[in-house]
Amino acid sequence: MAIRTICIPIAECISHTKSELYAMLRRSLDASRSVANIAATECLRQDDITQDKCGKLYTYPRCKDMYEGCSFMVASVCRAVEKCYKQDRWQMKRGIRASRSYRSMPWPMLNNASCSTLQVVDEGEYLTAKIKLLNGHVVVRLAGGSNYRDQIRGLRKAIELDAICDSKLWIDRNHKAILGISVDLPNKEAKERDGVVQVVSGIDYLAAMIIPRQQHPFVINADDVQQWKAESVRRNQRWRQTRKQGIDRRRLREESSAFAEKMQRRLKSKTHEIASQIVAKADRVNAKIIELDFTIKSYLPSFPWYDLVSKIEYKANDAGIEVLVKTQSVTEPQLESPHVYFILEPHSWRVKIGKTKGGKGRIESYMTMNPDCVVLAIDNQPQTKLSAKEKHYHAMFDNHRVIDRNKIGNELFIADPVIAWLRAVEWIGNAGNLSQIAQVLDVSRDASRVGHLQADSKCLRSNESTEVLAEGQKQAGIFGVKTDGPRSGSQTD
Length: 493
What we know:
The protein has helices at 18-46, 60-63, 71-93, 149-161, 223-244, 249-284, 305-319, 361-369, 386-396, 415-424, 434-437, 463-476, and strands at 2-13, 107-109, 118-122, 127-133, 136-142, 167-171, 177-185, 196-200, 207-210, 218-220, 289-293, 322-325, 339-345, 350-356, 374-380, 412-414. The chain is of the alpha+beta class. It folds into 3 domains: 2-185, no CATH class; 196-322; 339-476, no CATH class.
């Protein structure tokens, strides 16, 4: 079963007049917004932001007495606010963003075994819905016609299967009441599938699907998104300059908010489009598994990558395709914690990829025997995943392993492809030793991050550097060059 939301406008109100319906709806939405803001304040009060993990949040007791007879709304809004707070906490802890303040909050409508505030009925020619608002129930007719043919078909199937779930109601920017009805419809019938396709990001494109037995990958460039981002930067810069001059700040604020909403709608539609293209292509080649690796985010650093992965997962689930996410984690490196290290031997031009449980003892002992070596990068991992991550990197560069018959399990690799990959994800110098690396390696292309792992920043900026990096990435198999070695779930395929 797959849960999806069917959005359909309200055509007319049967039990009340249109003005009465919208007056009741606005009062209900104001109540939902008030509960959301109080719950957000309560989350800040209950949480100790200095701790690494968020404690238990329970904001319902603070809001339960605000609106009598609407405990279903209060509980639903509180749960939604608590979930959003936990999602934003990482950025709040590091000062990247502030706590949310809600200017609007949809009105929740429940349809489960314990509570039902929404009933959708098929009247034959049209569909009706009975909704409980703050001041009572209303009966409305849903929009129909050819424009909403697919929505009506899906709702009728959901009514037949009794598959309508918790939903929501809101007013859009065109002042229309919209019902977002969640339905739990069965997936398509599974068919026999075979094969694995890999979807990787790159420095010259948003995503590329590498298909077995096909010479050229299926590339999604998304140049229009880069144009949108450039347009957004230009407009925001102009608005900031005009606002400093004090020219009609209210109008500028309204224009800025409207454009921000437009950008959000554009990106939402674009992520749906890209996810549909990827899943449809995988379905056409009869793939059984889609492996996603979006470690390199330099083409569009501010693109909603997590939202794209989520959409690919649920669309692939509907098509009966399994999705494996193998994106490298981006964390702040700590030498005292367990990590995988990349050490360069300048004289032999080899890179050692090994692991340590923490501390500098393992690295210092190796550096004592090889005093000219330099730590290029480290990747912190939990103790339970340390060995698996080391094997993952070994498999990634297996075709470039230095063969030594006297050693079993050799950890030395040719330096060029490893350095090219580290540059692509911008991990070089993430341990804060970029000046030391500069003595043996040209780091003019690498920005000093003083201990921060940034895989979502610009990788290269000059044409000459791009050619050098592209050559190294081709050696490492990042662009899908077929190799005879074992395959892993990273960019090497």
